[in-house]
Amino acid sequence: MALHGDTWRCDPATGAVAVPIYQTSSYEFQDTAHAARLFALQEMGHLYTRLSNPTTDVLEQRLAALEGGAAGLAVASGQAATTYSVLNIAQSGDNIVSSTDLYGGTWALFANTLKRLGIETRFVDPADPEAFARATDERTRAYYAETLPNPKLEVFPIREVAEIGRRLGVPLIVDNTAAPVIARPLDDGAAIVVYSTTKYIGGHGTSLGGMIIDGGNFPWEAHGERFPLLTQPDPAYHGAVWTEAAKPLGPVAYLLRARGVLARDIGAVLSPFNAFQCIQGVETLPLRMKQHCSSARLVADFLAGHESVSRVIYPGLQSGESRQRADRYLHGGYGSLIGFELAGGVEAGRRFIDSLELFYHVANIGDARSLAIHPASTTHSQLTPEEQVMTGVTPGYVRLSIGLEHPDDILADLKQALARA
Ligand code: PLP
């Protein structure tokens, strides 16, 4: 699927096997009737790169296929993907129910920016899936969660919450950024998957990007009153009813609106160049994930046996319900993120990070290189102390993203940095 999952075989114009970078903003119409048909959605085709592009199209198809979804929309970043995924079904006066276990940027988006647009986020503890049901009312438009949220690294109860949502008519949106290939949220009942492709999918720390994948499995029309943006005439697009407009194309009403309205009107789309970079990443993604996961396992075991380390946070080392969830939803590995705390606290954490030689000290995950950061003073610093506690950020927590270097080199760097911490 990573290599052949879409309809691409070679470039129809030249026979080029690698997907060419169609670095064009626009596409010449055959005649005025053709142009009118494209604008009226009576015929599919490229008309302007804010709406679609041949290079980006290959990436969208391939990731949708890899994920088991119906269609994809590539956007400029993971944050754009999350923003669009909510705005596509929620408007002022509506609410969403979100897991507390979130990337700090997503927390800030929900708690502040969406709130200012009139969309309320009700944060609930995912350890109790029924909390999602209790927080739901008639204006709830979506549930939101991350499969493998850092820093807590407690795998989200996807099936449990998706089932509650199916009962109440609420789709589950899952950010699967930290667990591509190893988790399959759509198979477990999620309706929409979003990615920051900046991380493992791109895989080389070169290009920001995001993806929204429509699972094509949510019965929007059966809950029509909850989703007027999809089931009522949309003045943003000639009065189109998206659930109707999508019928000739398949179960892609959600994705069609995201493209036709949000990508068109707000415009944070992926550049063709970044789509090309991302396609190169996807082609080796399953192999890289295997190596990320196997090296991370070695590192987690090493840290767990080290005298200076007071706690290791890693799904493969959890017990009880957390471990059961990790084993239910992750297949073939536990990802490459590891959290740990040093017995020496914050100061030891700082000395550790400053002593690293191979690891990069950066605000990223899922690079080919090994990375380390101190979330409390960086990625989660914009959160209040209470919010930091809720998301699992403790002052002495260090996060590692294990890369593709030889495991001996990774362990050697950790050993010398721990000795100096
Ligand atoms: N989701 C998760 C889980 C992340 O770690 C990040 C990291 O930045 C994002 C979303 C946002 O992605 P981007 O930086 O591509 O906007």
TrEMBL record:
Transferase in keyword set: yes
GO MF terms, alphabetically ordered: cysteine synthase activity; O-acetylhomoserine aminocarboxypropyltransferase activity; pyridoxal phosphate binding
Modified sites of kind N6-(pyridoxal phosphate)lysine: 199
Necessary cofactors: pyridoxal 5'-phosphate
Keyword Transferase carried by entry: yes
Any one Gene Ontology cellular component term annotated for this protein: cytoplasm
This protein's UniProt keywords: Pyridoxal phosphate, Transferase
InterPro entries per record: Cys/Met-Metab_PyrdxlP-dep_enz (IPR000277), OAc-hSer/O-AcSer_sulfhydrylase (IPR006235), PyrdxlP-dep_Trfase (IPR015424), PyrdxlP-dep_Trfase_major (IPR015421), PyrdxlP-dep_Trfase_small (IPR015422)
Family classification: Belongs to the trans-sulfuration enzymes family.
Name used for this protein in its record: O-acetylhomoserine aminocarboxypropyltransferase
